[in-house]
Every structure is written in C-alpha cells, then in structure tokens.
C-alpha cells in the first residue's frame, strides 16, 4: 500500500520525539478498524479507569501518573512512520489509516486529582469521547496509571512510617530506564524528599541527591584517600559511605578527615538497628553530634517501621519502591460504562462476568468526611456523570473528580513540574484526611467503604 503524501510528517526526529501512538495493543486499532466499517466509531461513549480491589491487604491507594498521562495524550499522533508500519504489516485497512492520520483527542477527561487517595470502585479517570478516540487510549492509560499508582501507593506507606524522616528514591538501577523516571516522580508525589535520577530532576523539577558508591572507595588505594578526595571535592557537609570495610573504623576515619562538622554517614549493610545505635554512640563520642545517619540496604516499609526507634535521620529506598513493594501493578482496568443510543440518550453498559463485574453508568464521586475532617465513605453517584450536580445536606462531602481535558485541551495546572508539585501538595493534604487505621502495615480491608447511589 502506498501512503498518501497528506499524512503528517514528524516536526522533529529521533527516538525522544516519537509519538506514543504505537505504545498500545493491536486490538485497540483493530477495534477502531471494525467500528469504522460498522458505522459505530463515532458513537459517543464514556470509558472509566478503576480498580475492582486494592492490592491484597492494602487499606488505600494513591493516584499518580496523571500529569504524565495528560502530556502523552496530547502527543498522541500517528505520523508517516507509524502509518507506514501499520500499512506494511496489514494491521488496519485504508479507511482506518485515513482516520488515524488525522487523529488527535478532542474529547473530555475527568479524574481524581493526582496525589488523591482512592478505594475499590473509585472512578479514577473518566473519558468522554467517540468510541474510536477513547478506546485507542486504553493501553496507554493503563500502562501509565497502573505503574505510577503502584509506586506512589507503596511510597506513601513508607512515608507514613518514616516519622517525618526524609526518604530518597534510589531505584533507577532496579527497573528500566523509562520507568525509573516515572517511579521517581510518583514517589516524590507520595512524599519522598528526593531522587538519585537526574532525568527525573530535569524533566519534573525533582530535588536530586547522591555522592558516592562503594566503587569510589575501592578505586582508591585506601579508604582514607577516598574520604579525603570526596571531602576535598564536596566539603565537610558531604555524606561518606562508611561500610565498605568496617563500620566503626570507617566512622572514625570519616570524622578524622571531615571533623565533627561532617554532614552525614551512610550505612548500607548489617543488622541495621544494632549498627545504627552503635554508629550514633560512636559519632557522639567523637564530637560529631550533628552528623546525620542515612541508611539504605534493601529497605521497604516494614524495615523502616522496624527502625522507628533507631537514631536514623534519613532513608534511601531502591528496589521496593520501584516495584510497588511487591505489587508492581495497581490492578486498574478500563471499561466502556455508557454510550449514547439511537435516541441520543445515554445508556448504561457493564461487564457482568464472574469476578469481573463492573458498574455501568456515568458517575460522580464524593468523599464524605466527619466534622473533624476524617474520611468516612467513598460515594459514587450514578446518573448525570462528572458534570452533574449534587445536594450536600451535611456540607461534609468533597467532590473528587476534576476536569483534566476539556474539548481536547489539557488543563495546564496538572502537567509539568508545577503539576507535580501540585500533586505532592494535594497528597500531603489527603493523607491528613485518612483515618488512623489506614497507616497500619498489617493486612486489612479498605479503610473506608465505597457505596453507590
């Protein structure tokens, strides 16, 4: 098949400039292909992203990935390169290629604010568009939200048991190069203080941190030479890694070289409660009473909680945060829940398969709080949809859905570094709203119920 020269050409080249249009599953495009042929591609629909349940034992989840997703939807275009590949591989037919050549999302999207808490059944993202415009985004929406939410939800649990002590995200070497950046952003939204990933710092405005690994110590002829080189380069406020050989000897050497003004030591091994207590006592005995102790070493929320009584000043988390602390996907699904019929009225549709039931209909979402501002119930209103109205008798319900895309235009408040900071601030506020039982690490049910009205 020869493509028409009217198909768009990329404005700039290179892998970094590539559209996300083919980051999808084949059946998204074949559904569009069949719908164009049957005349249903332009039927107005509402799709919904939600989780039927939380990961086993979790009491709440945290929304993340929204800001990334909005930018990806804005970039979602089919250029000559994608269209040629689709034609050469006979994925879709000529009428669908013509449709895709002009594709840009022109519908409406509502969602929970990034950083918001959610529960089973929460309508986290609502997409109102034609069938073709909305269905083609399914894989992109789920791949972004499922990963980012899993990271943010795990990170929030870690922050909740850190007792206000800062946590750095250090997991880039434990995931792929793209998810490393996404994980850093999601963890920051959930309350982490910084990241080791420089691209996350550049792209999203996150604070970055890091000084030296064991290879820097091993590079030098002695630990003393390594410490001296680092202090010469970065000053006494630096963080010295003291466990390459022997922790007490490393601490003594660190204070000898940097003096009692040494900023911090990092410990990456050993029985941490015992090692940290001994390190604090040694630092104090050497006059380094203000030198902080940072611990790393395969920590997760349970290890952090076990160190709650230890004199730890900061944590560094790698593998457990970028893998969702054992739950690498949040379990979100994306379903068609309503479409317009022949009379132009909205019709509710739903999947009824065993164990995979979905609730059809256009929805609004509210959170009921008590007089003290503590969340009591997630309320899903069926009927008018996210743009509808509701009467609050008590004045204690908070609307959860906000417009993210209106007639194809992204709300700029939710994207970029500023959107990331907004999400972080919203999360900090939301965490104050959750009942105290939400922060227990033991297995439990969602901390508030979800009801439909």
Report what the structure shows.
The chain is α/β, with parallel strands linked by helices. It has a 7-stranded antiparallel beta sheet with strand order 13-12-1-5-3-17-18. Helix 11 links the parallel strand 8 and strand 9. Helix 2 runs antiparallel to helix 6 and helix 3 runs antiparallel to helix 4. The radius of gyration is 25 Å and the shape is globular.
Q: Count the DSSP helices.
A: 15
Rg of Cα set = 25 Å
Coarse morphology = globular
Question: Helical content, roughly?
Answer: 25-40%
The biggest sheet amounts to:
7 strands, antiparallel
SS elements, strand count: 19
**What average pLDDT do the residues reach?**
93
Portion of residues in beta strands equals 15-25%
Structural class: alpha/beta
Point out poorly predicted stretches.
1-16
Q: What order do the strands of the largest sheet run in, or round the barrel if closed? A: 13-12-1-5-3-17-18
End-to-end Cα distance: 52 Å
What descriptors fit this protein?
disordered N terminus; 15 helices; seven-stranded antiparallel beta sheet; 453 residues; globular; six-stranded parallel beta sheet; alpha/beta
What does this entry show, briefly?
By secondary structure, the protein is α/β, with parallel strands linked by helices. The chain has 15 helices and 19 strands. Helix 3 packs antiparallel against helix 4 (94-101) and helix 10 (223-234) packs across helix 11.
Secondary structure elements and their pairing?
Blueprint: H1 26-38, E1 44-51, E2 61-62, H2 66-74, H3 80-88, H4 94-101, E3 108-112, E4 117-118, E5 125-130, H5 131-135, H6 138-160, E6 167-169, H7 177-189, E7 194-195, H8 198-204, H9 214-219, H10 223-234, E8 239-241, H11 247-258, E9 264-267, H12 272-285, E10 292-295, H13 301-306, E11 314-317, H14 319-322, E12 332-340, E13 346-348, E14 363-369, E15 375-382, E16 397-399, E17 401-406, E18 409-410, H15 416-433, E19 450-452
Parallel strand pairs: 6-7, 6-11, 8-9, 9-10, 10-11, 15-19
Antiparallel strand pairs: 1-5, 1-12, 2-4, 3-5, 3-17, 12-13, 14-15, 14-16, 17-18
Helix pairs in contact: 2-6, 3-4, 6-7, 10-11, 11-12
């Amino acid at each position: 098949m020869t493509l028409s020269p009217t198909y768009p050409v990329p404005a700039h080249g290179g892998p970094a400039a590539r559209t996300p249009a083919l980051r999808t599953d084949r059946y998204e495009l074949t559904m569009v292909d069949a719908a164009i042929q049957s005349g249903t591609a332009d039927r107005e629909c509402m799709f919904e992203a939600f989780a039927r349940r939380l990961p086993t034992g979790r009491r709440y989840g945290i929304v993340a990935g929204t800001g990334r997703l909005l930018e990806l939807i804005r970039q979602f275009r089919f250029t000559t390169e994608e269209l040629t590949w689709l034609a050469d591989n006979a994925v879709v037919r000529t009428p669908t290629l013509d449709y895709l050549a002009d594709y840009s999302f022109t519908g409406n999207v509502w969602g929970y604010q990034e950083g918001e808490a959610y529960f089973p059944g929460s309508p986290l993202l609502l997409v109102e568009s034609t069938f073709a415009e909305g269905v083609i985004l399914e894989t992109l929406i789920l791949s972004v939200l499922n990963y980012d939410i899993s990271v943010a939800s795990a990170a929030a649990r870690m922050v909740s048991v850190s007792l206000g002590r800062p946590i750095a995200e250090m997991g880039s070497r434990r995931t792929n190069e793209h998810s490393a950046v996404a994980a850093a952003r999601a963890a920051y939204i959930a309350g982490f203080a910084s990241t080791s990933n420089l691209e996350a710092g550049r792209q999203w405005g996150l604070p970055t941190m890091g000084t030296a690994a064991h290879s820097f110590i091993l590079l030098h002829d002695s630990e003393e030479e390594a410490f001296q080189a680092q202090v010469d380069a970065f000053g006494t406020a630096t963080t010295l890694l003291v466990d390459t050989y022997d922790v007490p000897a490393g601490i003594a050497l660190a204070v000898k070289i940097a003096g009692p003004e040494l900023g911090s030591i990092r410990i990456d091994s050993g029985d941490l409660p015992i090692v940290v207590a001994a390190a604090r006592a040694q630092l104090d005995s050497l006059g380094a009473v203000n030198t902080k102790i940072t611990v790393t070493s395969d920590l997760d929320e349970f290890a952090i909680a076990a160190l709650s009584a230890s004199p730890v000043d900061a944590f560094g988390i790698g593998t457990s945060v970028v893998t969702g602390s054992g739950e690498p996907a949040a379990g979100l699904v994306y379903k068609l829940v309503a479409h317009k019929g022949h009379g132009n009225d909205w019709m509710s549709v739903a999947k009824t398969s065993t164990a995979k039931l979905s609730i059809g209909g256009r929805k609004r979402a509210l959170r009921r709080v008590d007089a003290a501002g503590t969340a009591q119930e997630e309320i899903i209103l069926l009927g008018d949809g996210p743009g509808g109205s509701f009467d609050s008798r008590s004045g204690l319900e908070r609307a959860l859905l906000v417009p993210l895309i209106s007639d194809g235009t992204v709300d700029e408040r939710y994207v970029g570094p500023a959107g990331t900071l907004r999400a972080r601030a919203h999360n900090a506020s939301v965490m104050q709203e959750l009942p105290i039982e939400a922060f227990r690490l033991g297995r439990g049910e969602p901390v508030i119920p979800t009801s439909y009205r």
